[in-house]
């Protein structure tokens, strides 16, 4: 028998499940607020209130706002690189197929989600917060560039694209993604139809532009003099 003040097994189980879910709820609330307000303007008590817990509860899981931000980045972006690496390892199509697939997957999993707002936040506030900037560079920028480098090097090795200066070629692939993230969280957020932009069509055209510029060109025919 249970005393009137003792929780039933069902109630205790619900509380335990709720406790296990709290880090995820806090991360989701933090993501929303970081994207809406920026890093500097977001307060931990706002995050706690949006997640439906006290500020003290938040600090049980995250020791500071910086650690909470790192958890947001790992959950929504950095933690996906292992999955993407496995997909790249298993991919059997051409460089054309691979680049188009990568753009499509990136838009579905990152670009068209709240997580893409983190990039705009970093561009806006990086110079004020060197610790989180170094963290973002280490866990997002460098792995992302390394993944793109692998995609391009795969094309070179298969003789589908010409040899490239990889240190700069990665930015050819990154540039359309950066544009879309800025558009989505600036002009696109305020006036969605301002550019009449279809992100998927835009990425397809950028892939065409990149690939036609990188493919091995056939020798031009020699035109005899008039």
From TrEMBL:
The keyword DNA-binding applies. Residues 20-80 form the HTH tetR-type domain. Residues 1-12 have a biased composition (Low complexity). Keywords: DNA-binding, Transcription, Transcription regulation. Residues 43-62 bind DNA. PANTHER family: HTH-TYPE TRANSCRIPTIONAL REGULATOR BETI (PTHR30055:SF234), HTH-TYPE TRANSCRIPTIONAL REGULATOR RUTR (PTHR30055). This is TetR family transcriptional regulator. The lineage of its organism: Bacteria, Pseudomonadati, Pseudomonadota, Betaproteobacteria, Burkholderiales.
